[in-house]
Each structure stands twice: as C-alpha cells, then as structure tokens.
Amino acid sequence: MRINTLAQWFGGNRMLAQSAGKALGRLRWCGVPFAGGCPELPHIQTAAGVANDLHRHVINLARVVRDDALVEQLVHQLDSLLFHPDESAEAQERCRDREQSRQFGDAPDVAWATDYFTACWMGRGGHAGKQGEFDQSLSLRWTSSGGDSAVRFRSAIQSLRDWHRALRNWSFTCLDAFEFLDNVRDADGHGLYVDAPWPDAGEEYRHAFTLEQQVRLAESLARFNRARVVVRYGDHPLIRELYPEPRWTWLQQTGRNQRNGAIAEVLIINGGPPT
C-alpha cells in the first residue's frame, strides 16, 4: 500500500500501525471505537470488525472506499481534479457547509467523500481531525527538497483500490465511543483497539476528551477480561495511574510527532504481551 493512512490524521499511528495489529493477534471480531485515519485497520487480522468515529467526514469516506462500485466513482472524480487552490478551497467550503447544516446522510455519499479527500490530501499533512481542519492552505513546494504535494495527492488516489481491499471486512459507525463500547461483547476471539485522544496533546482534536472521559474510558475497558484489549497512548502520568501494571502490560515504543520528532508512546494490553 503506497499510502499508509486513509486520511492525514492529526496524531495518527501510520508509522507504528503494524505493531497494533501484532499486539491484537488473530481475531474473529475486532472493534475500533476511535478509527481516525484508519492506519491500523489493514494490519488487524480479523474475520470481521466495526470501526467507529464521531468524525462523520472520515467515516463517510471509509464507507465509500469499501464499496465495490462507489470506490471506482470516487477515483474517477478525484482523478479529474486539478491540484489547485480553488479546488481545495471549494471542497473545504462544502465540508464546512455540511458541518454547519448537519447534512449528514445515512447512505455513503461519493460527492461528500470527494470533497473530504480533497480537503485532506491537498492541504497540509497531519491536520485531519483537528479543529480548523478545513482552513488549511494548499500544500505547495517551491524547492526540490522533500516530496511533492501534487505527487502525494495522486499517490493517495491510486492507493484507494488497495484501501478498498483492506476495508472490505469492516463496517463503520458514528457512535459516541462509550455507546460503542457498551455494545461490545467480552468474548474469546474478540478484540478492541483503542486510540483515544491523548491527555494534553489530544486537546487539538475536533472531538477532544476531558479528564472525566479519560477516567470513564479506563473504567469501561477494565471490564474486558476475555477479549483482547490494546490501547495506544503517549507515556503520561495520568495514563500510568489509569492503566496500572500488572493489571495492564505496557509495551514501550517510539513514535513520531507532527514535526517528525521522536516521542515516547506505549501500547497497553490486558493480559500478557504478544507472542
């Protein structure tokens, strides 16, 4: 897969997505209450799964991409676009209009997915999911250093058929995360991958998390004993308190922040480490 995330998500796990899949192991069913840009989904070995996010734009995009016919319509519409500030600005404006008028339909919408994909991939990387994500200027390079933004946009379009194959076994919802978790059955062969907004850093998200929600999430996840639970966070004192060892197994890993700097993060697992 040439592009390792469906949307250029703020704080997304595109560099270490494979480790999340490894930690979960082989499953019959998996739930992902905070799907974001979906980088982990291709790496999760499951017969079926449900991915969820309150961000309706990215969920509509995923629902279009997983559909056999609609993904081809999406690729055709995106291929016809010029990499130009007007295309980007018009797509952003239509996305903002949907937000303000709450024009969120129940059926996958190709025109909407085209606008959101354009807003994500013509704009600067790492802003999807943030407040003000539809206010980004067109990403242009005026030197030969670094990758070209137009090439990145075309590569993202070309990757959509790969994403289609990766998402075929997944269903998508736009529920509150706690409502989603209430529906999950604690059973052998089930798994949960949880990448909630982080303390402090996650305050920039459109759908941020309060301290009370962080506590409630830890309490919700503690009820799972038979299902495999893998949680991703930055290494933070609050998280140390909410997910104590040895009840939870901590795996240290080094991620990258938005400026490509090294950042300490962890995978927190109920039960033992992956084999």
Give a written overview of the molecule.
This protein has 275 residues and is α/β, with parallel strands linked by helices. The protein folds into two domains: 11-54 and 175-275, 3-Layer(aba) Sandwich (Rossmann fold), CATH 3.40.50; 55-168. Helices cover 37% and strands 17% of the residues. It contains ten helices and seven strands. Strands 3-2-1-4-5-7-6 form a seven-stranded mixed beta sheet. Helix 3 (68-79) packs across helix 5 (110-122). It is globular and about 55 Å long. The model has no long low-confidence stretch (mean pLDDT 92).
**Helix fraction bin:** 25-40%
Mean pLDDT over the residues: 92
Give helix and strand order, one letter per element, not per position.
HEEHHHHHHEHEHEHEE
Q: How many helices does DSSP assign?
A: 10
Span from first to last CA? 26 Å
Give the C-alpha Rg.
Answer: 18 Å
Structural class computed from helices and strand pairing? alpha/beta
Count of DSSP E strands?
7
The CATH architecture of the largest domain would be 3-Layer(aba) Sandwich
The number of distinct structural domains comes to 2
CATH superfamily of the largest domain: Vaccinia Virus protein VP39
Largest beta-sheet details: 7 strands, mixed
- From the spread of the alpha carbons, the general shape counts as globular
CATH topology of the largest domain: Rossmann fold
Return residue spans where pLDDT drops below 50 for at least 5 consecutive residues: none
Major beta sheet, strand line-up: 3-2-1-4-5-7-6
CATH class of the largest domain: Alpha Beta
In what range is the share of β-strand residues? 15-25%
Oligomer: single chain
